[in-house]
Design goal:
The chain has about 220 residues and is α+β, with helices and mostly antiparallel strands. The chain contains four helices and eleven strands; from the N terminus they run αααββαβββββββββ. Strands 1-2-5-4-3 form a five-stranded antiparallel β-sheet. Strands 6-7-10-11 form a four-stranded antiparallel β-sheet. It has a two-stranded antiparallel sheet with strand order 8-9.
């Protein structure tokens, strides 16, 4: 009986790992395709770095805010968790239950502060990760991440960057995840943005964090 239980547990873990990679693959493919679409300016490499950094934000389409400390905490939590998931995560890094992958709250806090700065207080709570619920267990101090596939709501296209001494403001187009098409040669055609935002990044040493997201009327 003990051997049967071990076999079932092993099968669950193997199945979960396979599904986890399926999840990462589905989410990553659109970003991979977006990276293959060439930009016609000399800022292409830098813009690509910005797009990689803000992609977990854009895919969740959070509410706009002028001050990150006043943003919706559950949305920031969801973004932080997605950032962990799509960061080239080793499938063996975290434990699993029959409900999904288990991410300790300290890891979510670290990613939260990397994305949104060191001064914003983290208030842990369950969050909606684009149609997937990330349940938080206060008792066990961890998040439960269901193993399933999802198409990102949006992917980012950085259209411009206005740099200052302590910040950079990005003009960003939101590309709908459902609007990518193939031409007759099998090449993916980049869609027009569904909407535009301005994302302000503040310098934090040698890196940046997101301090504001504002609506914009169009491309800069």
């Amino acid at each position: 009986m003990e051997n049967v239980k071990k076999t079932k547990a092993a099968n669950l873990i193997v199945g979960t790992v396979v599904l986890l990679f399926a999840l990462i693959g589905v989410v990553s493919v659109v970003f991979f395709v977006a990276g293959k679409v060439s930009k016609s300016n000399n800022n292409a490499a830098k813009f690509k770095e910005y797009e990689n950094f803000i992609s977990p934000v854009v895919m969740n389409d959070p509410d706009t805010f002028d001050d990150v400390s006043k943003a919706d905490q559950s949305q920031l939590i969801a973004i932080s968790i997605w950032s962990i998931i799509k960061s080239g995560l080793d499938a063996d890094k975290y434990a699993y239950s029959d409900q999904g992958m288990l991410i300790p709250k300290k890891d979510v806090e670290e990613e939260f502060h990397r994305l949104f700065g060191p001064d914003v207080e983290v208030r842990h709570t369950s969050a909606d990760g684009g149609g997937i619920e990330f349940k938080y267990s206060e008792k066990k101090g961890r998040y439960i991440i269901p193993i399933t596939g999802i198409t990102p709501l949006y992917t980012p296209s950085v259209l411009g960057a206005r740099e200052k001494s302590d910040s950079v403001t990005l003009s960003v187009g939101y590309l709908s995840g459902n609007d990518w098409k193939e031409d007759e040669n099998g090449n993916y055609v980049k869609p027009d943005p569904s909407k535009y935002v301005k994302i302000t990044l503040r310098k934090n040493g040698d890196s940046y964090y997101i301090s504001a997201i504002r609506s914009a009327d169009g491309a800069e």
